[in-house]
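How a chain folds remains the central question behind the approach discussed here. In the encoding step, the backbone of a single protein was reduced to a row of integers, each denoting a local shape. We regard such an encoding as a compact summary of how the chain folds. The sequence in question and its structure tokens are set out directly beneath this paragraph:

___
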Amino acid sequence: MKGQEWYQADDVAEEYDSKRFSRGGRLIDSREKEAVLDAISPVEGKSVLEVACGTGRFTVMLAERGADIVGLDISGPMLQQGRTKAQAAGVDDHVEFMRGDAARLPFPDDHFDVVMAMRFFHLADTPASFLAELRRVSKEQVVFDTFNRFSTRSLYNWALPMGSRLYSRWEIDRLLDGANLELASDEHDFVLPYGFYRKIPNSLATAFRSLDTAVGKSPVGDSLASVSYWDARV
């Protein structure tokens, strides 16, 4: 996995949310959570595994809506941030945070209703084996996102500290087929890439987001989108 040492540093975990989801990044956080809820709802009563849960943005959100959820991540400091969030939200009795490797999930086959991984596949060295492992422990649904090869994301990809793997639609279809998953639905968004929004104030980002959304709803919107959300079924 790319950038493991960087990702597991204490100071990275402490500043992760503020650097990525403040300013214009608030729009990213809101849209990602919307995409997760679109795919998983109704949430209440479902058993969920979130792989690469980071600081628990989605983990806590889903627990607040009634899911019994396990958040797994390789970074101890990230997991501690998640535990703090869960306790502050009063949902720590619905959440378990575990340190573990996405390549060898410590669960039996068909253990969870839903398995999800957000902000994960752009760092995956062996995406086919990772997706197969997500599929193995899910009995119903696998939800994940990817950054798109033929989009504005490619223009600044080289500048990211960890780099990112970009995917074409053909590659996604091949991954799903290899993992014996069937695509139920997909959403495509952000003609302007995430990095752009993180660099500008929220008020300015809102104006750009309106334009971005208008282009995204046009006939060419999906082909220009920099990020895709995939809802696959077992």
